[in-house]
């Protein structure tokens, strides 16, 4: 029996990944900091902090998972600038706590770690897995460090530790601290009369690769089931969208007259101008393709806020 343990299951991606795994024959167990989760959807749920070594060991010992996916993270670049020390502890030390628990218990589950396009150097071309690593923010740096530890443990203990570098992904349920969810929520708040007819934005003169979260979690499953533990895969659509065009599309879904305001709150230091995934490797090796239209996904997000 395949038993998957998802740390950080209460976040945006967790429920989508749980459904993807359940529909492919897994028992799914979740762990998160919340006291209660909708555990009826899972085969078991545990409250824990990824920095609590004892709790991590206790959970892994109880479940004896065949697969572990670590989604527990500080996942916002903007937030990572505000709390760089916490970002490093959660994203790096949290991962090491999972590794060390498995060592102490004496099991070798397949482990999937989630990296980011933020690990790469800023460039004006599609990013493939051979592009230079040179993270320029605390979040990206934490993910580079996580991968290095994965490499060490993979080689020293002959473990199947899989690493992905995900590009931007969106969908219903994403925290509105992320750009598209933020704009969609502001739009609906304006329509409801609880926000002035002004959408606050950061730098919209940039290009980003967006993928529907349902496509992302399918890629995660294909990767952790594969024989490519030593191969790092980029996961993204291969299409880079101009944020100004995305904003105009969102504004086209209302009859309200709305103005745009650049806000320091949403501006990031060292913001990359252009980010676009080259997904050729995962397409070739695992036959993965992005299936969902991002414009349809944005409409779904707008409707969810309604």
Summarize the model shown.
With 306 residues, the chain is an alpha/beta fold.
Protein model, in words:
This protein is of the alpha/beta class and 306 residues long. It is built from ten helices and 13 strands. The protein has a seven-stranded parallel beta sheet with strand order 3-2-1-4-5-6-11, sandwiched between helices. A two-stranded parallel sheet has the order 7-10. Helix 2 (53-63) packs across helix 4 (84-105) and helix 4 runs parallel beside helix 5 (138-157). The mean pLDDT is 95.
Question: Can you lay out the helices and strands and say which pair or pack?
Answer:
Layout: E1 2-7, H1 13-22, E2 26-32, E3 44-47, H2 53-63, E4 67-70, H3 77-82, H4 84-105, E5 110-116, H5 138-157, E6 161-166, E7 169-170, H6 179-191, E8 198-201, E9 207-209, E10 211-212, H7 213-224, E11 233-235, E12 240-242, H8 243-251, E13 259-262, H9 280-286, H10 294-305
Parallel strand pairs: 1-2, 1-4, 2-3, 4-5, 5-6, 6-11, 7-10, 8-13
Antiparallel strand pairs: 9-12
CATH architecture of the largest domain: 3-Layer(aba) Sandwich
**Which structural category fits the helices and strands?**
alpha/beta
Helix content: 25-40%
Strands ordered across the widest β-sheet = 3-2-1-4-5-6-11
Low-confidence stretches: none
> What's the CATH H-level homologous superfamily of the largest domain?
NAD(P)-binding Rossmann-like Domain
Shape, per Cα inertia axes = globular
**Averaging pLDDT over every residue, what do you get?**
95
Count of distinct strands: 13
For the sheet with most strands, the description reads:
7 strands, parallel
Helix and strand string, N-terminal first?
Answer: EHEEHEHHEHEEHEEEHEEHEHH
Strand composition percent: 15-25%
Instruction: Tell me the radius of gyration.
Output: 19 Å
- Number of helical segments? 10
The top-level CATH class of the largest domain is Alpha Beta
Terminus-to-terminus distance: 41 Å
Number of domains in the coordinates? 2
CATH-defined topology of the largest domain: Rossmann fold
């Amino acid at each position: 029996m395949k038993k998957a343990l998802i740390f950080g299951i209460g976040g945006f991606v967790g429920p989508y990944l749980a459904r993807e795994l359940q529909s492919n024959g897994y028992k799914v167990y979740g762990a998160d900091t919340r006291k209660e989760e909708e555990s009826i959807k899972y085969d078991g749920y545990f409250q824990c902090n990824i920095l609590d070594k004892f709790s991590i060991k206790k959970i892994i010992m109880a479940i004896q998972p065949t697969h572990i996916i670590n989604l527990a993270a500080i996942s916002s670049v903007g937030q990572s600038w505000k709390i760089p020390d916490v970002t490093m502890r959660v994203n790096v030390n949290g991962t090491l706590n999972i590794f060390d628990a498995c060592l102490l218990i004496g099991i070798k589950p397949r482990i999937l770690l989630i990296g980011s396009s933020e690990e790469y150097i800023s460039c004006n071309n599609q990013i493939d897995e051979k592009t230079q690593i040179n993270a320029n923010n605390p979040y990206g740096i934490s993910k580079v460090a996580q991968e290095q530890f994965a490499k060490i443990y993979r080689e020293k203990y002959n473990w199947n530790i899989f690493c992905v570098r995900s590009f931007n992904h969106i969908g219903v349920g994403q925290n509105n601290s992320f750009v598209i969810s933020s704009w969609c929520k502001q739009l609906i708040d304006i329509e409801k009369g609880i926000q002035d007819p002004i959408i606050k934005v950061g730098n919209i003169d940039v290009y980003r690769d967006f993928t529907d979260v349902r496509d992302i979690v399918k890629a995660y499953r294909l990767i952790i089931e594969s024989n490519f533990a030593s191969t790092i895969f980029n996961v993204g659509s291969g299409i880079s969208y101009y944020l100004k065009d995305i904003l105009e599309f969102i504004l086209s879904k209302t009859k309200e007259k709305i103005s745009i305001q650049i806000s320091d709150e949403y501006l990031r230091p060292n913001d990359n101008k252009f980010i676009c995934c080259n997904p050729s490797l995962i397409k070739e090796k695992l036959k993965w393709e992005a299936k969902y239209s991002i414009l349809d996904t944005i409409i779904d997000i707008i409707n969810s806020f309604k």
